[in-house]
Amino acid sequence: MTMKLFETISVGLVLLAAAPVWSQDDQRTVPVPAATGPISDTSANDHADLMLTPPPVSGQSYPIAFTSEERSNYLRGGVTFSAAYSDNVLAATESNRVSDVSYSVWPTIALDETTPRAHLVLTYAPGFTFYQRESSLNEADENASINFQYRLSPHVTFSARDGFQKSSNVFNQPDLASAAAVSGGTQEGNFSVIAPIADRLSNSGNVGITYQFAANSIVGAGGTFTNLHYPNQKEVPGLFDSASQGGLAFYSVRVSKINYIGATYQYQRLSSYPASGINETQTHALLLFYTMYPTKSFSISAFGGPQYADSGPQFSVTGTTASSASQSWNPAAGISLGWQGRLSSLAISYSHLISGGGGLIGAVRMDSATASLRQQLLRALSATVAGGYTENDLLAGSPLTSGNGHTISATASLQQQFREHFNLQLGYTRLHQDYSAVAVLAANPNTNREFVSISYQFSRGLGR
Q1: Where is 5: in which H helix or E strand?
Q2: Who contacts 121 (Cβ-Cβ below 8 Å, separation ≥6)?
Q3: Mean pLDDT to the nearest integer, 254-259
Q4: DSSP assigned state of 403
Q5: What is the DSSP string of 242-258?
Q6: In this prediction, what percent of the chain has a pLDDT beyond 90?
Q7: Cα distances (Å, whole numbers) of residue 158 to 15, 26, 94, 198, 222
Q8: Whole-angstrom Cα Rg for the chain
Q9: Cα–Cα dist 226/244, whole Å
Q10: pLDDT confidence of 190, banded at 50, 70, 90?
């Protein structure tokens, strides 16, 4: 993560050095637009000349916060204590399902700072988890993220995001109801294949720049990366390390106040690492996209076009060649929407495209649908329901297609606030995976998990 953050900051410094110098008056009067987010903020909508970057090319996820909860310029901290019961903690290491109770503690600190030209969000949450019976699974976790936007000039915006997680339990999050982010993007990492209990390091991020060169025209470029690493391969028989790198360039036109159309070229390098050798696929795509913003808190997007895949020789687990090089043309398409209300939020997306295997032995044709709904029930009580379905079909020929499969997951939770600083959360997660050729998942494909947490949080406004 450190190297990725260093690279991102270095790019930012180069761009800053090349940026035009503003006068002090300009800095006071030009607002920061929501240049990379799928939903705009108030300041951006108050200035009709500022265009948004549509979700298919923004690299950002739809927000799930209520509009009544959105704020900036604060320092927040706290601690969360949680207990969880899981009926499948050892997966393939035991023929019979083994259940256990775990206890976790999560200190958290977050900084959200906005200036006339920049918006910075930093979050760090280390964690410690202890198991009641299987003490060998005790773990120390890391969760860290950075999200940064900077206005280089009135019409040029730089953005960067990076997220890192170290854990042996993919369900361990500071917010136990959090689910996979819902995105309308066309270059998303595939983290759908889940080993319930296994040491893992994951890192994903993107960097981009946009330039509005005319009243209703904007161009941009960006890059993305993901990394998935299993330090102990014996814990995940049938799964492998993987990585992806990608880049895109796009052109977007605002044809009316609420309608955007555009085109993008995208490149990906998708790699996985079996016992010997490397399985690599490179893709090229030319996609058209459309986004409509009926209101400042509601957007609908769609994209589609051809995607070309060039796969080198694919290796088996033992390192022998399982299939020769191949090339293919594939359709890519997707649709998504995001909506934020004062007491409700909703995000839905579906995509069909070529993606990294996310732990499988090679790149896949992926069909993925995700959804998240959050609703305020009473003044201090809210509910969240989130879930997803992902079908992964390996690109390579018949020697590897037995690795095909699908993942279904869902989480439901209730959150009750007590006074100003305390929150109680109750929830349930169901995970089903069907991958007959992946040993760590084949024997016990289902996981049920119930959790309860109590947290204390404080926030302090900056500059007050």
Answers
A1: helix 2-18
A2: 110, 111, 112, 113, 145, 146, 147, 148
A3: 94
A4: G
A5: EEEEEEEEEEEEE-SSS
A6: 50
A7: 8, 18, 49, 36, 10
A8: 22
A9: 5
A10: confident
Task: From 246, 345, 237, select the one nearest 287 (Cα to Cα).
Answer: 246
- Find out whether 229 and 243 touch, Cβ atoms under 8 Å: no
Domain definitions of the chain by residue range:
2-461
Residue 47 in tokens: 């200035």
pLDDT tens, 48-94? 578 999 999 988 888 777 766 666 788 989 999 999 999 888 765 55
Which of helix, strand or coil describes residue 7? helix
3-state secondary structure of 200: strand
Q: In whole angstroms, give the CA distance from residue 319 to residue 179.
A: 35
CA distances from 358 to 67, 190, 226, 240, 372 (A): 33, 5, 9, 8, 22
Measured CA to CA, the distance from residue 181 to residue 198 in angstroms comes to: 21
Q: How many degrees, rounded to 5, is the angle at CA 445 between CA 444 and CA 448? A: 95
Measured CA to CA, the distance from residue 138 to residue 143 in angstroms comes to 17
In tens, the pLDDT along 323-366 reads 667 889 999 999 999 999 888 999 999 999 999 988 898 899 99
Cα(171)–Cα(11) distance, integer angstroms? 33
Euclidean distance between CA atoms 158 and 166, whole angstroms: 28
As a whole number of angstroms, the distance between CA 122 and CA 463 comes to: 17
Question: Residue 429: which H helix or E strand, with range?
Answer: strand 422-434
d(CA 323, CA 337): 39
Contact 190, 364 (CB under 8 A): yes
pLDDT of residue 238: 86
Contact indicator for 359, 314 with CB cutoff of 8 Å: no
Strands (E), 180-323: 197-214, 217-229, 241-254, 259-273, 279-295, 298-311, 314-315, 321-323
| 383, amino acid identity | A
Nearest CA-CA partner of 348 in 395, 295, 284, 301: 301
Alpha helices in 255-310 (DSSP H): none
Name, in order, each residue with C-beta under 8 angstroms of 31's C-beta and a sequence gap of 6 or more: 43, 44, 46, 47, 50, 116
Could you tell me where the DSSP H helices lie in 211-348?
none
Read off the pTM: 0.82
Write out the CATH class of domain 2-461.
mainly beta
Alpha helices in 19-150 (DSSP H): 24-29, 42-45, 55-58
Helix runs in 89-144, H state only: none
pLDDT per position as a tens digit, 11-37: 343 333 333 333 333 333 233 333 334
